[in-house]
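Try this one yourself first.
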């Protein structure tokens, strides 16, 4: 009688392995995506709207403290560590399971849109009490482009490192 290996479970196909290489991929993605975001926010955006994107100011508003350096550090850790992990363990598995026909750039850009909605509706509006999407001023659209770039860079790194 021939023995067959057990088929891969749905979870093992949907989620990346809990391995050092996965977390290294997330860290590389986070550093490169956050670097891209910061360049967009602090170099390109001021040329367009007259001032930089200031996510630390939003962090300060949400958490109610005045320490700008701490707010910058919180935003940096979230961008470098947690958002890439969110792509790997939440956004990509959901897309792979329910929308497997979507090409990876669409999934990555969709993740960027999700991050933008999270930042400017959930955090800025619901938590900090600012107008939804800051009333769609020019800074809102600059933020959208920054989040799209962030998502795309994360997707590129995941594709490069994991082939998925």
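Now uncover the answer:
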């Amino acid at each position: 009688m021939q023995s067959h290996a057990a088929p891969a479970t749905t979870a093992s196909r949907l989620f990346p392995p809990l391995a050092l290489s996965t977390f290294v991929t997330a860290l590389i993605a986070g550093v490169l995506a956050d670097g891209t975001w910061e360049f967009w926010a602090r170099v390109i955006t001021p040329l367009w709207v007259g001032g930089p994107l200031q996510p630390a100011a939003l962090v300060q508003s949400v958490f109610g403290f005045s320490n700008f350096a701490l707010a910058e550090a919180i935003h940096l850790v979230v961008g470098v560590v947690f958002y890439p992990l969110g792509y790997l363990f939440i956004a990509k598995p959901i897309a792979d399971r329910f929308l497997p026909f979507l090409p990876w750039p669409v999934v990555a850009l969709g993740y960027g849109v999700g991050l933008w909605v999270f930042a400017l509706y959930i955090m800025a509006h619901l938590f900090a009490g600012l107008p939804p999407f800051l009333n769609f001023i020019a800074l809102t659209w600059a933020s959208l482009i920054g989040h799209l770039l962030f998502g795309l860079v994360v997707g590129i790194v995941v594709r490069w490192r994991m082939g998925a």
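Discussion: The chain has a mean pLDDT of 91. The CA atoms of residues 116 and 144 lie 6 Å apart.
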